[in-house]
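Ticket reopened. Same input as before:
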Amino acid sequence: METKKLTLKVFRFNSDTDYLPRYMTYEMEVSNGEVVLDILNRIKWEIDGSFSYRRSCRHGICGSCSIKVNGKAVLSCKENVFDLVKIFGEELILEPQDKSRAIKDMVIDKSNFWTKYDAIKPYLIAKIDENPKSENIVSKEDAEKLEEADYCIECGNCFYACPAVGVNEDYLGPASLVKAYRFNADVRDEAKIERLEITNKLGFGIWDCVKCYECAEVCPKEINPIDKITKLHNQTFEEEMAEDNVATRHAVGFKNSIKKHGILDEGELVKYSEGLFGTLKHMPEAIAMFRKGKIVLPWNMPKSKNLDEIQKLIKSSSTSEFKGK
Amino acid sequence: MSKLKYALYTGCTARESTPELLKSTLAIAKALDIELVLLDEASCCGASHLQDFDDFLSLVLNARNICYAEKLGLTMVTICNTCQLNTALTKERLDHDEDLRARVNEKLFEVGLEYKGSSEIKHFLYALVDDLGIDEIAKKVTKPLSDLSIAAFYGCHNIRPSKLHQGENPYKPTSIDRLIVALGGKNVEYESKNRCCGFHVELQNPKTANALSANAMLDAIDNGAESVVTPCPLCHIRMDVQQHNISKEAGRDVKIPILHLPQMVGLALGIEPKELGIEHHVTDVTFA
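Engineering reply: fixed in the latest deploy. New output:
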């Protein structure tokens, strides 16, 4: 059995008694089969019984034991320690998912996660016949529409790794949006429109995803949350729920521009997305850019070669329409 | 080693708001004896927004772009992280889903094209560090960066999702840092090098965008950076053009020159700053 001597720098804090957190350093001989949860247990059992963290199933299903190691969001019971050593070396820093919400050591107040989760009505909404004559059977094809979205264990890895959540406390965040998709895609559910109204709201929902793919990277169940957020965008257009605003026009504007030039007309995209009044906000940057030769004037816009081909494809391959509520 | 040759997908920004990126890419390719064939037929990749409106159309257009690299029998190189992601994601989906590929090809056949999946897609950064090699580049340095402290800002779409971008660890990317050192500079260690600049919500949520840029740039500055370098023109536009708005959001002066990756390489190779388009920056590059 291979072992390694690791230095663990562990975030310690008790919100009842401490003014500031501190980092304790522990040395530990770790073997190649151990996961992060084993280390948390050994700190508590071998070093300091007052050390606190959440844990329950130890099988990657309860979603309780997530923490951050050297900034990487991990589900402790699933993350092999040697894999982390390969990335970060033999000094590992163990921290709670969100240091600013620490209650005690690794235990955080996760209420912001649950509030966002509740906001999208994370349950099946349907008129149920209380005395059905037969089983309500969902076909294999219909079940597959949920894709992986149903595997979410609410561990919070994506939520606490999401940079948009970090700077915009209103943003629903990836886990909640995945759950909205999960029920919207369920053929038995009848509240898709209701949910899209919530997830569509500027400042709160899908349009505030920064497209950084952190959520896809940290999900222990490989749900690929950003893919589900894209599908919510698609549903929003399909159900004609897309309002006529800066964010929706920004998505649609690409098609208009590609149709005209093949490549994107950046100036035109800003004008189309923002409208006349909104465009004025950007004048200071536009003037600075123009002076430095960073703005191509409309009559100088380059076009892709074989533009007719692109236009034909746009005609034959478009699957979505923007009506703008 | 035989001469490296690639099909260059410039993306849109390099032809519009960051002309210096195309200029410097072509200049260093010439200096490093790399042949680049421009894909003038290519369209916009949809910049990760078109797919929100029309996923299938976005796939077809990206597949068409790849077709032109395939016709040349060349690896496609990109110089924008978001172009890289969209193109590589399209390839990934079409290479692993026969039905989808058939549906996309049905459309492409109508214009006489076929997606085969024969071309690789890589960002120019990795053509430099993996194909040419950092040692080869180091041999051609004539004007070392003389210990200039440079913070590498990797940009999300070159490192995540990591399944798509083999070779770089999204939690500890190293390629640009290694390149900085090889060019005679000093690489700045800072936590935010793999973080998001917020570009994609700049229009609908400027507050989020500015806050994210501010966090990353202040982290670089507070760790001693005299410049930031990025392989992504979208990160560049944010960080170079928006410094006054970022400063307002931060409540602190956020002022630092931002280099495109090929500009940094070009300076070390002794290429004149003008040939690298340094004069196009909104925030002056005082040391070049």
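The mean pLDDT of chain A is 96. Chain A has three domains: 3-108, 111-130+138-238, 246-317. Please confirm and we'll close it.
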